[in-house]
Amino acid sequence: MTDASRETAPGLEVTALHAGYPGRPVVQNVGLTVPAGQVVAIVGPNGCGKSTLLRTVARLHRPESGTVRAGGEDIWELSRRRAAHRVALLPQSPRAPEAVTVAGLVRYGRHPQQGLLRQWSREDENAVRDALAATGTTELAAERLDRLSGGQRQRCWLAMVLAQHTPVILLDEPTSALDLGHAVEVLELVREVAATGRTVVMVQHDLAAAARYADLLVAMKDGRVVARGKPEEVVDEALVKELYGVDADILGAPGDGSPVVVPRARRLTKRG
Amino acid sequence: MTDLKAAGRTSTAGSGAHTGAADVTPPDSTVLRGGTLSWLLPRRSALAAALLVPVLVVLTALAVMASSTGMSLPETVSGLLGTGDPGTVMIVRDFRLPRIFAGLMVGAALGIAGCLTQTLAGNRLATPDLVGVNDGATAAVVAVAAGSTTAVVGNWWLGPIGAVAAAAIVVLCAGGAGSAGYRVLVTGIGVSTFIGAVGDLIMSRENDNTAGGVFLWAVGSLNGRDWGVGTPLALVLLVLVPLALAVGHRLQLLRFDDDMAASLGVDLRRLRAGALALAVALAGTAVGVGGPIAFVALAAPVLAQRLAGPTRVPITGSALTGAALIAAADALGRVAAPVELPVGVVTSVLGGPFLLWVLFRPDRATGKA
Predict the structure, then answer these.
(1) What domain range is B210 assigned to?
(2) Minimal C-alpha gap between A61 and chain B (Å)
(3) What is the complex's ipTM, to 2 decimals?
(4) For the segment A212-230, what is each residue's pLDDT rounded down to a tens digit?
(5) From B38, which residue of chain A is nearest by alpha-carbon distance?
(6) pLDDT one-digit tens code per residue, B183-196
């Protein structure tokens, strides 16, 4: 999966991006450079523009101005199909074809590489097999997706996105529907994926998880980037107050010092 | 050069890290590879097609023989070979064969058109007539018949022209061909009702002669279709069917939500517009030749889906099933009653119960009705 050229290639470069809907700017002047092999978490309150940013990077929403380069190429210069060789997206709650098996789902990840004369190459076969292995879903290959648990399903979706073999992978709140155990499982998987030289951008609601698993944290509010950097440098009381309007204590995790956000309960003092 | 490999026997591990590598080839398909080219042959669909072809041949043979006057097998064969008496030869070669040929083409076109619209809408009840194909084609034919002095209903190409015009109006009203399928369909119901009313209005002012001719056409009939109709129809299909096959491969992706499909490299606007245009052109041509024959576009893809399995978009199967349905219905119409029944009447009579079966039979794959 790893090859030398991909390691050195720039992962994702977003420059001066403006995007939105007529009369309603949503993403304003966002710039972002992520080297290959890193995990970026985009955090911010609901409606801050992080989902629109992700959709614009995924080439689903045309920006008003600015560029998105994935693996060195401007994705808006590419055809829909060629862009799918560069960027893969896992939407927040994707709908699967009825009655699809796990292997069937992951095979769809090879669609951008396939055509009438190239329906199932050895490369496709290996990509699907590797993606199943990497996500620990090999044993589930023949199962029907709709009969699996939420955590298993999410790993299968990740396998499909991996099989697409893109330098950039976008995940829209990949853990929002999962319990703690499965969320951690998915986030560990995200780290492993990045370790193979791919760039992962994920929208995350859970600030603590974002801080722990991301190399770079980008905080957005009202369509603008208000803070970016290493999580332990960026996350502080002022940022949490600015983003969410909440007073919180920021603690360092005993293990690695990564920031943990604990909201202050307003009535706590009354009881004591 | 080409290596043939049956699915289910791949055991070369792709990654050394995991033992017991999964077989990831589609279990229902056989892989054909040569150089950088590769194909998947879906075994169940291929088997279904292989079975449908002899069925078609038998039905065609029966259709050639079938008549209210009765013609024996030897007589039919002698007519086909040109060795029988001139009357028989003429009936078989100049009347029955071209009519049956046109019927097969019409059935194939309707089957594919139905398959495309059903897949686009994600609904087994969606047929091309919902976007105004039947009413548009009928209105065009009626208007021209009313305007002519000979009151002859003919000119198959009026069908596709009227159909495309009606569908274009529908698509414009719905806000573009890339719009969600249901939106186009709902607009189509309104627009086609209106166009149908215009056609009825024109017809109500015509004399009985024209009205009678138009009526026979408007229930769907293959009576009197000759090589002059069959040949251009075959040429149209020769162009449109390969396009439909190419589109069918991508249409599978519509089973995902739009964002996921787009992220997998599908240009949804182009795909939807292209598939709809193909469906309208195919169905419009079929209607131009055979009139608005009911239920074939609905039934053929549903039957083909059952044959091919739930994960396919059965373009080829729909074409073969549609052709078989028309051949059977046309033959039945010529032997079932003392007076020849138009093929459209037969399909309507058989189609009603079929529709109820589609509606109330639960889908085995999903458990949903």
Answers:
(1) 43-359
(2) 10
(3) 0.88
(4) 999 999 999 999 999 999 9
(5) A118
(6) 787 888 889 899 98
